[in-house]
Design brief:
This protein is mainly β. The protein has no helices and 28 strands. The chain has one domain: 7 Propeller (Methylamine Dehydrogenase, Chain H), CATH 2.130.10. Keywords: Repeat, WD repeat. This is WD-40 repeat-containing protein.
Length: 305
């Protein structure tokens, strides 16, 4: 892919404070956002407008995750609690009360009914997604566990920590396997490529490492941004991926050879974010990219190529 046309499709305005997380809904035209506000917001992409407050919260929201194969949204908050909310009824199905420090990442499996929460306390907890019982909890680090990735075949779980470590675990029994090539500063983003060939890791050191999943050795490393790489998201079917950063930019890359294809930033002439871009997501409704940031905006992008 050599050329991409990128246009701003719209802005979702309404948050009064920075937005930290975005997640797709069961219906393609719905997305959810959360941040330093008092609620998780539901947006309608068909109308490009606010729909409702899905769930009120007392503390900042750092993580949102739609539990695989369900209409349930898991919410991680600054007080260390996990909340599971039915996206149709807005009813809270469960409160995951274990961690004492903020929840920064949440992931679930497609092949087994388990949910993973990662916390600033250096531990992760595993919950059954039927009754939401606590199954296991274990220490990963003496520092914050900032991000989680599950491999495409769901054989591996990877955790990124504040002390720059990337740790590989067996997804079957959560046994520690090995420490992978890491970063000089906190690991802030992890993502497996859709074909399962690569694990990408990003950090506060502004570095991006590309690991070959056959042996988890580094096959490429480069500096994609000026500051922290907060998000790495592969397009579900096109050979591209996007990164988002504290440097206020979003960049689109070729997933074949990791070439930079486009830069979305105010400095490049886009009506884009003026502060840190904290999260991004590819949405299936109109095949768009959505970004959220410290400037309280969620921006919808048409990416055509």
């Amino acid at each position: 892919m050599n050329k991409l046309d990128i246009h701003k499709a719209g802005t979702l305005s309404g948050h009064q404070n920075p937005i930290f997380a975005i997640e797709n809904g069961v219906v393609a035209s719905v997305v959810y956002t959360g941040g330093n506000d008092k609620g998780v917001v539901e947006w309608d992409l068909a109308e490009m407008a606010f729909k409702r407050i899905l769930y009120p919260v007392q503390f900042s929201v750092y993580a949102l995750h739609l539990i695989a194969g369900t209409p349930l949204l898991a919410i991680g908050t600054r007080d260390g609690k996990g909340h599971v909310v039915h996206t149709d009824t807005r009813e809270r199905i469960a409160k995951l009360d274990h961690h004492q420090r903020p929840i920064f990442a949440i992931k679930s499996f497609k092949t087994k009914p388990e949910l993973i929460l990662a916390s600033e306390d250096g531990t992760v907890s595993i919950w059954n997604t039927h009754a939401f019982d606590l199954l296991y909890h274990f220490k990963v680090s003496d520092h914050t566990v900032r991000t989680i990735a599950i491999s495409i075949d769901e054989n591996w779980v990877v955790f990124g920590t504040k002390d720059g470590k990337v740790k590989l675990y067996n997804a079957l029994d959560y046994s520690f396997v090995e420490e992978l090539p890491a970063h000089a500063m906190p690991v802030t983003s992890l993502c497996f490529s859709p074909d399962g060939r690569y694990l990408l890791t990003g950090g506060r050191d502004a570095q991006l490492n590309v690991l070959d999943t056959s042996d988890f050795t580094v096959v490429n490393t480069f500096t994609p941004h000026l500051f922290t790489v907060y998000a790495i998201k592969f397009h579900p079917f096109s050979p591209i991926f996007a990164t988002a950063s504290r440097d206020k930019s979003i960049k689109i890359w070729s997933s074949d050879d990791f070439r930079l294809l486009r830069v979305i930033s105010f400095e490049r002439g886009f009506d884009s974010h003026l502060l840190s871009v904290n999260d991004i997501i590819w949405n299936a409704y109109k095949n768009q990219l959505i970004s959220v940031g410290d400037d309280k905006q969620a921006i919808v992008w048409d990416v055509v190529g």
